[in-house]
C-alpha cells in the first residue's frame, strides 16, 4: 500500500502487453472473447468481419519445436470446429506468442499466421501488424500507469462488452409480429371470401400469375397471385410456414424491412414463374422462400449466435422443399428459387442492424437492381 492507503499494482511486461492487446482488439476492432474448455494461458478472440477472424494471444511458455507443433495441431482442430459452427469457408487466424524458447522455429501454415512479441516495440516492426492493424501501436499508448491503467482497461472492456450485449439483446428480443399476423390474415381472407361468395374460380382466373396476361398489361397479377391459394391444404401449409418463419424474420429485421422483403421476394418469385413456366401460378411460397433466404443472410451475419440453427434447420428446410418441388408435379419450384434469391439480395441491400457496412448495403442494392432488371427482361422481353 502506498501512503494514504492507495494500492499500487505492478503489472509485469507480459501481462501489460496482454491487457493492452485485449483492450485494442475488443474496444477498437470489436472482437469478442471465445470461451474454450481445456485451454489455459491463452485468449481466443473472434470477429468474422475482420481479415483475421480469430486472434489468439498465447502467454504460455513454449520451449521447443515439439510443443510448438502440438500448439499448431491444437489450434487447427479448434479452428476447424469454429469454421463449422460459423459456416465459414476460411477462418484466418493470427496467433500472437508472448513467450517462446530461443530454439523454437516460429512458422506459419495455411490460414494460421504466427508472430512473436517479447515487447511492444516488436509490434512496430512486424509486417502483419503494420498491414492489417496499422493503428495498433498507437492505440497501445496510455497515459495511465499501475492501478489507473488496470482500472481504465478493465472499465473500457466492460463498457464495450455491455454495449455489445445490449445491441444483441435488442436484435434478438422477441417483438410482436404484427406484419406476419396481417399477411397471414390477408392470405386467409383472399381464400375464404371468394369461396363463400362462390367466386373462387373467377378470382383465381382474374388475379393469378399467368405470363400471357401479365405481358398484355395485367401487371397487378405479379402481386395479387402471391396472396391466392389453390386449395385449403395449400393455404394451410403456406400460412403455417409464414407464421413460423415470418415472425422470426420480422423480429430480427423490423417490420418495414420485413414487409419489403416479403413483397420483393413474392415479385421475383412471380417473375421466375413467368420465365420458366407456361401455366398459371398462385401461392405465397415464393415470398416464404424469400423469408428463408433473408434468414440465411441474417444468420450468416449473426452466425456466432445462429450458426447451428442455420446449418441444422433453415438450410435443410430449403434443400428439402426444393427437392420436393423438383420431384413433384404441380409445384412451381421456379417461383421458390426466384423468391429465395430475391429475399437474400434485398436483405443484403436493406442491411443487417449493427452488422452491415454502407459499402455492403450499396453492393446489395446494386446486385438487387441488376437481378430485378434481368428477371424483368427475361420475363417480358426475351420470352415475349
Describe the structure.
The protein has helices at residues 13-28, 65-85, 120-125, 127-132, 136-139, 146-172, 178-196, 200-207, 211-215, 221-224, 232-253, 255-276, 285-301, 303-327, 333-350, 358-382, and strands spanning 32-34, 42-46, 54-58, 93-97, 112-116. It is mainly alpha-helical and 384 residues long. It folds into two domains: 13-171; 175-382, Rhomboid-like fold. The protein is elongated, with a radius of gyration of 27 Å.
Sheet with most strands: strand arrangement = 1-2-3-4-5
- CATH domain fold name of the largest domain: Rhomboid-like fold
Low-pLDDT regions: 1-9
- Quickly give the structural class: mainly alpha
Could you outline the blueprint of secondary structure elements for this entry?
Blueprint: H1 13-28, E1 32-34, E2 42-46, E3 54-58, H2 65-85, E4 93-97, E5 112-116, H3 120-125, H4 127-132, H5 136-139, H6 146-172, H7 178-196, H8 200-207, H9 211-215, H10 221-224, H11 232-253, H12 255-276, H13 285-301, H14 303-327, H15 333-350, H16 358-382
Amino acid at each position: 500500500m502506498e501512503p494514504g492507503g492507495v494500492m499500487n499494482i505492478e503489472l509485469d511486461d507480459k501481462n501489460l502487453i496482454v491487457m493492452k492487446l485485449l483492450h485494442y482488439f475488443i474496444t477498437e476492432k470489436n472482437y469478442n472473447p471465445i470461451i474454450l474448455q481445456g485451454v489455459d494461458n491463452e485468449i481466443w478472440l473472434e470477429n468474422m468481419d475482420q481479415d483475421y477472424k480469430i486472434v489468439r494471444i498465447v502467454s504460455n511458455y513454449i520451449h521447443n519445436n515439439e510443443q510448438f507443433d502440438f500448439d499448431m495441431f491444437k489450434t487447427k482442430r479448434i479452428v476447424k470446429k469454429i469454421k463449422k459452427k460459423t459456416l465459414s469457408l476460411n477462418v484466418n487466424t493470427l496467433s500472437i506468442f508472448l513467450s517462446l524458447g530461443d530454439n523454437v522455429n516460429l512458422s506459419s501454415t495455411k490460414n494460421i499466421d504466427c508472430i512473436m512479441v517479447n515487447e511492444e516495440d516488436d509490434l512496430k516492426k512486424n509486417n502483419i501488424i503494420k498491414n492489417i492493424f496499422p493503428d495498433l501501436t498507437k492505440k497501445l499508448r496510455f497515459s495511465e500507469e499501475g492501478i489507473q491503467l488496470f482500472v481504465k482497461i478493465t472499465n473500457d472492456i466492460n463498457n464495450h462488452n455491455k454495449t455489445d450485449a445490449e445491441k444483441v439483446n435488442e436484435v434478438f428480443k422477441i417483438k410482436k409480429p404484427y406484419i406476419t399476423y396481417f399477411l397471414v390474415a390477408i392470405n386467409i381472407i383472399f381464400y375464404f371470401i371468394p369461396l363463400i361468395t362462390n367466386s373462387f374460380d373467377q378470382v383465381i382466373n382474374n388475379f393469378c400469375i399467368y405470363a400471357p396476361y401479365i405481358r398484355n398489361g395485367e401487371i397487378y397479377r405479379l402481386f395479387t397471385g402471391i396472396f391466392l391459394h389453390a386449395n385449403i391444404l395449400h393455404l394451410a401449409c403456406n400460412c403455417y410456414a409464414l407464421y413460423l418463419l415470418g415472425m422470426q424474420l420480422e423480429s430480427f429485421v423490423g417490420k418495414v424491412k420485413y414487409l419489403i422483403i416479403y413483397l420483393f421476394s413474392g415479385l421475383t418469385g412471380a417473375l421466375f414463374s413467368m420465365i420458366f413456366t407456361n401455366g398459371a401460378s398462385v401461392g405465397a411460397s415464393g415470398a416464404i422462400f424469400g423469408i428463408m433466404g433473408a434468414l440465411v443472410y441474417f444468420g450468416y451475419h449473426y452466425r456466432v449466435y445462429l450458426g447451428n440453427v442455420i446449418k441444422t434447420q433453415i438450410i435443410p428446410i430449403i434443400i428439402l422443399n426444393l427437392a420436393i418441388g423438383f420431384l413433384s408435379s404441380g409445384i412451381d419450384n421456379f417461383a421458390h428459387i426466384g423468391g429465395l434469391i430475391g429475399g437474400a439480395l434485398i436483405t443484403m441491400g436493406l442491411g443487417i442492424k449493427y452488422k452491415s457496412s454502407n459499402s455492403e448495403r450499396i453492393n446489395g442494392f446494386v446486385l438487387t437492381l441488376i437481378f430485378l432488371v434481368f428477371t424483368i427482361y427475361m420475363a417480358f422481353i426475351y420470352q415475349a
